[in-house]
Amino acid sequence: MHFMKASIIKFLKFTFFSLGAAIVEITTNSLILLIFGTDKTALAAAVIASMVTSCTFSFTMNRHFTFKSRRNLVTGLIQYIAFYSVLTYFGVKYVWLLVHIGVNPYLADPIKMVSFYIFDYSFCNLYLFRDWSKKKNKDKEISVAP
């Protein structure tokens, strides 16, 4: 029961900080589109810049408050950047596709964000901020002969 409650609280914290990151991303994206227009290059620049700013916010807040990770900051940041480099590539393609089929450029980014939310939570929860020391200790307990 305790594990379930802790998991729900962790998910709610992640959701809260994801909403904060969404505000950062939508604001950045909208400002860039307002300044530079909605052509293909500006759209790509807006998606990339807004993802970088929101990912920085999300990584920092979730590392400290949601997962309380003690992992090496640089290692975690490099892994998060690598994950989001791949996700950003597909994010740009996804936004272009949405705009191409007639979705408003200002709505395409929030649609992408909602679509990618589950990937982000899964990666952070199951890999990036996972407490690997518990697994190592559990493996040592199993391997000890009676």
Descriptive overview:
The protein has 146 residues and is mostly helical. It has one domain (2-131). Helices cover 86% and strands 0% of the residues. It contains 5 helices and no strands. It has helices at residues 2-36, 40-66, 73-100, 105-128, 132-143. The mean pLDDT is 88.
What keyword list fits this structure?
146 residues; mainly alpha; 5 helices
Proportion of residues in β-strands:
under 5%
Mean pLDDT, rounded to whole units? Answer: 88
Query: What is the CA-based Rg, rounded?
Result: 18 Å
Q: How many E strands?
A: 0
Uncertain runs are none
Number of helical regions: 5
> How many domain regions?
1
The level of helicity is over 70%
Q: Which term fits the overall shape? A: elongated
Short description:
Helix content is 86%, strand content 0%. It has 146 residues and is an all-alpha fold.
Write the layout of secondary structure elements.
Layout: H1 2-36, H2 40-66, H3 73-100, H4 105-128, H5 132-143
Helix pairs in contact: 1-2, 1-4, 2-3, 3-4
